[in-house]
TrEMBL record:
Protein name (Swiss-Prot/TrEMBL): CKLF3 protein
Upper lineage: Eukaryota, Metazoa, Chordata, Craniata, Vertebrata
Signal sequence coordinates: none
PROSITE patterns: MARVEL
Cellular-component GO terms for this entry: membrane
One Pfam family linked to the record: MARVEL
Top-level taxonomic group: Eukaryota
Main location class: membrane
MARVEL domain: residues covered: 25-144
Record-linked InterPro entries: Marvel, MARVEL-CKLF_proteins
Organism (species): Calonectris borealis
Membrane topology: Multi-pass membrane protein
Length: 161
């Protein structure tokens, strides 16, 4: 019989469970937004494949891959390991462009195509636009906070005081 480990010792989970992101990241606002973005982008991608508007399928595929990459990058704390890239700015630009692209292709899919899959992709696209807009609003607030802290540390900020 194996003896149970003490409560303080946390062994890594065996097998495929080690690939899953930590529970605290999944419960965080950023984790939930990135997961929602990835799921919505995948659903929209599938809808566009099944529709007459198949020419729009590339945008949701790229957004799905980017959201999935950032989800696992934030979950595995790559943003803390690679300091050369300012992650919130990259995430902000991704969210702004995704919201604009989803809004544009959703309007085109709903107004131009008459099949049900195109209409469903358009409706999910409008929902994704809202999710991406919420994400870029939150990320924008983080950017503003960072820039305010950076400007108070600069020499010009000390001269004006």
């Amino acid at each position: 019989m194996e003896e149970p480990e003490p409560a303080g010792a946390a062994a890594p989970p065996p097998g495929l469970r080690s690939l899953l992101p930590p529970r605290e990241f999944l419960c965080s606002r950023k984790g939930q937004l990135l997961l929602a973005e990835a799921v919505l982008s995948f659903i929209i991608f599938i809808c566009y494949i099944a529709s007459l508007a198949a020419s729009f399928m590339m945008a949701p595929l790229l957004e799905f891959l980017l959201a999935l990459f950032l989800f696992f990058a934030y979950a595995s704390k790559l943003n803390e390991k690679f300091k050369g890239l300012y992650w919130p700015l990259t995430d902000f630009l991704r969210c702004v462009t995704a919201a604009i692209i989803y809004f544009a292709i959703s309007i085109a899919a709903v107004s131009k195509y008459n099949d049900g899959a195109s209409k469903a992709a358009g409706v999910f696209g409008f929902i994704a636009t809202i999710v991406y807009a919420i994400d870029f609003y939150i990320t924008f607030n983080d950017l503003v906070t960072f820039l305010k802290q950076g400007s108070s540390d600069s020499p010009e900020g000390h001269k004006s005081e």
